[in-house]
């Protein structure tokens, strides 16, 4: 929702830019931590969703941990004041350099994704005379029922260790004197809106939990990943996710024993609704079959529609809702036919210079921007905009 005052301020700004509502972000974080605290759950913020410095400061101030997928994310988390005892490092292809950086930073835990990676971390830790804490990322073979490009928990995906390799994991743990086994880690996919998926995940985690116990290994950390989806269709309806409902699924279905901790890694649900991509109409092309709105933002600023056929709500901020509606294909300026935000969008009749908001762009938006076509780096503005 944009006040007339903020729209006037947008008019004075060069476009495109990401607009961040840090108040909404704070309220979202508070809702999440309040709901998690009810059950003593630990929440790590998945930096990959958005590592804008002000976003990181706000998340850190709310007391969350950090879920990182590169050495640079680990360093960024620590630079922004995240407690190193709350930093986890996941990723299917950690380089030696990144592992060494995380060992030097004494992070809480590596989420390991293969037996070979366990051996490499063990060797690198041994060379430093250190012990690396590890959680085993297991592929639970649970279908997330989300877009196939953001599904991660199926046996055909590259992520995690498949269950038939777990004997090998236990054997390797026995040989790796510089690894401390902390527990298990799962993540089945992103933008999950069918909450039954999380219930199914709990059932699998309970089974695997028993399996490890039977092998005499105590699980301290049950990390169930992230993936909670947001409403891209109605960004103003309930901009803050139902965190209480989400955590209750785990409370009701996950077996947690004395001395165990439950960890989450949420990205999208924490940041998505707090930002919009603001752009201007450069040209209006009226054709016989199609009308095009050509914006000054494109796939270089927000690639989700082009990469995952993702829906983002599009609004003309300059025209009122009572203006006559026209059907447009809303496209960007990049020299690619796929540089298209959406086809057949009903918008008030639009003109060159109108401000257009592409909503729910706070997660996997700015961080996935690129310099293709030698575009300028996209700017960010915040709700304290002058
Ligand atoms: N943990 C792990 C191991 C992950 O791989 C991810 C996301 C998360 C946590 C956070 O998931 P979230 O709560 O944000 O769903 N670029 C795509 C999404 C890629 C998600 C990658 N992994 C998009 O724009 O939809």
Task: Summarize the model shown.
The protein is α/β, with parallel strands linked by helices and 386 residues long. It has helices at 4-11, 22-37, 53-61, 71-79, 96-104, 115-127, 166-175, 196-214, 243-253, 268-271, 304-308; strands spanning 17-20, 42-46, 65-68, 87-89, 109-112, 132-139, 161-162, 179-185, 221-223, 261-266, 275-286, 291-295, 314-316, 325-331, 340-348, 355-358, 379-382.
Task: Characterise this structure.
With 386 residues, this protein is an alpha/beta fold. The chain is 29% helix and 23% strand. Strands 1, 11, 12, 13, 14, 15, 16 and 17 form an eight-stranded mixed sheet that branches. Strands 2-3-4-5-6-8-9-10 form an eight-stranded parallel beta barrel. A hairpin with a 4-residue loop joins strand 11 and strand 12 (291-295). The longest helix has 19 residues, at 196-214. Ligand LLP binds at residues 46, 48-49, 67, 90, 150, 152, 187, 190-191, 225-228, 265-269, 304, 308, 363-364.
Could you name the key traits of this structure?
8-stranded parallel beta barrel; binds ligand LLP; single chain; 11 helices; TIM Barrel; 2 domains; 386 residues; alpha/beta; Lyase, Ornithine Decarboxylase, Chain A, domain 1
């Amino acid at each position: 929702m944009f006040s007339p005052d903020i729209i006037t301020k947008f008019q004075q700004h060069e476009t495109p830019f990401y607009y961040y509502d840090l108040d909404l972000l704070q309220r979202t974080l508070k809702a999440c931590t309040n709901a998690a605290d009810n059950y003593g759950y630990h929440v790590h913020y998945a930096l990959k969703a958005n590592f804008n410095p002000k976003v990181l400061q706000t998340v850190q101030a709310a007391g969350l941990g950090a879920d990182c997928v590169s050495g640079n994310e680990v360093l960024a988390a620590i630079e922004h004041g995240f407690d190193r005892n709350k930093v986890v490092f996941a990723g299917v292809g950690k380089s030696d350099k990144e592992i060494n950086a995380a060992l030097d930073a004494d992070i809480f835990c590596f989420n390991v994704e293969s037996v070979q990676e366990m051996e490499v971390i063990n060797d690198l830790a041994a060379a430093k005379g250190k012990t690396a804490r590890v959680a085993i990322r297991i592929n639970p073979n649970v279908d997330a029922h989300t877009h196939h490009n953001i599904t991660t928990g199926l046996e055909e995906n590259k992520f995690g260790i498949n269950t038939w390799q777990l004997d090998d994991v236990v054997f390797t743990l026995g040989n790796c004197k510089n690894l401390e086994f902390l527990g298990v880690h799962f993540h089945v996919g992103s933008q999950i809106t069918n909450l039954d998926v999380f219930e199914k995940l709990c059932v699998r985690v309970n089974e695997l939990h028993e399996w490890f116990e039977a092998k005499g290994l105590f699980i301290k950390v049950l990390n169930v990943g992230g993936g909670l989806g947001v409403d891209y269709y109605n960004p103003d309806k309930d901009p803050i996710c139902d965190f209480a409902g989400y955590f209750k699924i785990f409370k009701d279905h996950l077996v947690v024993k004395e001395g165990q901790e439950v960890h989450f890694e949420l990205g999208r649900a924490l940041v998505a609704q707090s930002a919009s991509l603001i752009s201007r109409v450069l040209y209006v092309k009226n054709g016989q079959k199609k009308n095009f709105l050509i914006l000054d933002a494109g796939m270089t600023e927000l690639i989700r529609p082009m990469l995952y056929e993702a829906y983002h709500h599009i609004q003309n901020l300059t025209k009122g809702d009572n203006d006559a509606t026209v059907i447009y294909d809303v496209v960007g300026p990049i020299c690619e036919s796929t540089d298209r935000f959406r086809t057949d969008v009903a918008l008030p009749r639009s003109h060159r210079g109108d401000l257009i908001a592409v909503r729910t762009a706070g997660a996997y938006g700015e961080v996935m921007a690129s310099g293709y076509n030698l575009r300028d780096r996209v700017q960010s503005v915040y709700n304290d905009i002058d």
